[in-house]
């Protein structure tokens, strides 16, 4: 377990004795796709870190509409905000690809943060990155047209989930078209329109949940 924890960025640089404390306090569980880890407005009692698979973080309207905020993959942590400010969950979390997830109780999480400045700084950095990403999303929704938002989100997904070979990036995501349109902040018909245009130009190829993005053709 110690060797495993050392490979996680959040715990990088921690001493073996400190990693042993974490190992003693944490739980590792496997969740099937579709499992809800928590819902918006729940009381937050657990911190999570993805070891494998992926989890979507999203908001829901009173009418059941969803807006995906982010996709958490290997090494990403979430759920810390409620543990830090004591307020209810600001979003929901659902497994979208069978996942192994490390969890820490609120008490253990706070004890570990108080005892290690490097871990605390890593959490602060994560929160800062998310704030910047939220600011960028607001900027994009305000100033960027739908086509550019779709392309930007495709590139982001390719960077996070893809493998590059020359000018081609191949990536696989367990998201349906509704969820991809939510990420881009566009209506689904507009998403289809942009996808069709990109496929006609040979920039994008889609087969099920597998995508091929031609970066050279995208550039020109």
UniProtKB/TrEMBL annotation:
The protein's name in its UniProt record: Crp/Fnr family transcriptional regulator
SMART domains membership: cNMP
Record keywords: Activator, Coiled coil
Molecular functions per Gene Ontology: DNA-binding transcription factor activity
GO annotation, cellular component aspect: cytosol
PANTHER family hit by this protein: CRP FAMILY TRANSCRIPTIONAL REGULATORY PROTEIN (PTHR24567), HTH-TYPE TRANSCRIPTIONAL REGULATOR ARCR (PTHR24567:SF74)
Xref: Gene3D superfamilies: Jelly Rolls, Winged helix-like DNA-binding domain superfamily/Winged helix DNA-binding domain
CDD domains assigned to the protein according to its UniProt record, in alphabetical order: CAP_ED (cd00038)
UniProt feature coiled coil, ranges: 117-144
Cyclic nucleotide-binding domain span: 10-130
Pfam families on file: cNMP_binding
Organism of provenance: Paenibacillus thalictri
InterPro entries assigned to the protein according to its UniProt record, in alphabetical order: cNMP-bd_CS, cNMP-bd_dom, cNMP-bd_dom_sf, Env_Response_Regulators, RmlC-like_jellyroll, WH-like_DNA-bd_sf, WH_DNA-bd_sf
């Amino acid at each position: 377990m110690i060797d495993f924890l050392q490979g996680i960025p959040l715990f990088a640089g921690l001493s073996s004795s400190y990693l042993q404390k974490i190992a003693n306090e944490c739980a590792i569980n496997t969740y099937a796709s579709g499992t809800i880890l928590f819902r918006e407005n729940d009381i937050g009692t657990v911190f999570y870190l993805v070891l494998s698979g992926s989890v979507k973080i999203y908001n829901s309207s009173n009418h059941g509409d969803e807006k995906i905020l982010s996709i958490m993959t290997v090494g990403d942590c979430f759920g810390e905000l409620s543990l830090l400010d004591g307020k209810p969950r600001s979003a929901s979390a659902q497994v979208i690809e069978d996942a192994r997830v490390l969890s820490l109780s609120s008490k253990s999480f706070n004890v570990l943060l108080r005892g290690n400045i490097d871990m605390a700084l890593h959490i602060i950095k994560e929160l800062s990155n998310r704030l910047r990403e939220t600011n960028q999303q607001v900027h994009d929704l305000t100033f960027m047209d739908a086509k550019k938002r779709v392309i930007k989100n495709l590139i982001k997904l390719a960077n996070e989930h893809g493998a590059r070979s020359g000018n081609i990036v191949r990536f696989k995501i367990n998201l349906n078209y509704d969820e991809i349109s939510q990420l881009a902040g566009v209506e689904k018909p507009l998403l289809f329109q942009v996808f069709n245009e990109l496929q006609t130009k040979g920039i994008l190829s889609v087969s099920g949940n597998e995508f091929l993005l031609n970066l050279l053709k995208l550039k020109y």
